[in-house]
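Q: what sequence does this backbone want?
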């Protein structure tokens, strides 16, 4: 493209090839990136082409629309139009089919990308086998043990625990009542009293009475 040409031949060829209406802004956006045309140059070139009669110009309100001179194209009869319509329908159907195939392939690709590789699967299998072997060894050790606790012994332990917890709560309550009674006539704080008599509370030992 020569400097004197200012893009007119390129724009003329583009409009004839596309054979559809465009504004100067449309042509600028479509050709600027590839050919580096400036917007002012595009506007002047299209106005010049219209003035020379090489393209047609229509004004809609404040916007000008440009399109190829239709006189240069041969007439199309009804049969040709129907053939084109059929071809368009076939191409649309083919495009839809390809789009669907692309979607299916994308879904399969995402699934494959999220799946483990063969090496990763083999490594995980080995880890699981080692874990299973460890559990089997522990199970065999438990089965071979001779110091199993019988249900009767277990029940006895639970009953004893209940008795001890009940007694613990009872004694804790009695001790608390006694301390509170003494503190009514004691001039210092509760903490100072406990330190003085050498009493350690459950809280000092960081133990909690079981709820049951």
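A:
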């Amino acid at each position: 493209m020569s400097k004197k040409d200012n893009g007119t031949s390129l724009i003329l060829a583009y409009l004839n090839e596309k054979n559809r209406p465009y504004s100067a802004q449309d042509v600028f956006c479509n050709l600027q990136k590839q050919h580096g045309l400036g917007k002012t140059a595009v506007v002047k070139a299209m106005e010049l082409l219209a003035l020379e009669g090489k393209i047609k110009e229509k004004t809609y309100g404040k916007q000008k629309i440009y399109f190829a001179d239709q006189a240069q194209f041969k007439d199309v009869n009804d049969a040709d139009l129907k053939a084109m319509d059929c071809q368009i329908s076939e191409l649309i159907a083919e495009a839809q089919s390809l789009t669907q195939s692309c979607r299916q392939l994308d879904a399969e690709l995402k699934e494959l990308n999220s799946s483990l590789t063969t090496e990763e699967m083999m490594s995980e299998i080995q880890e699981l086998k080692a874990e299973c072997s460890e559990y089997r060894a522990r199970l065999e050790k438990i089965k071979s043990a001779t110091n199993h606790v019988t249900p009767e012994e277990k029940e006895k332990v639970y009953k004893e625990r209940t008795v001890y917890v009940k007694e613990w709560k009872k004694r804790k309550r009695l001790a608390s009542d006694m301390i509170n009674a003494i503190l009514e006539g004691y001039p210092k704080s509760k903490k100072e009293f406990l330190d003085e008599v050498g009493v350690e509370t459950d809280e000092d030992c960081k133990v909690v009475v079981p709820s049951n």
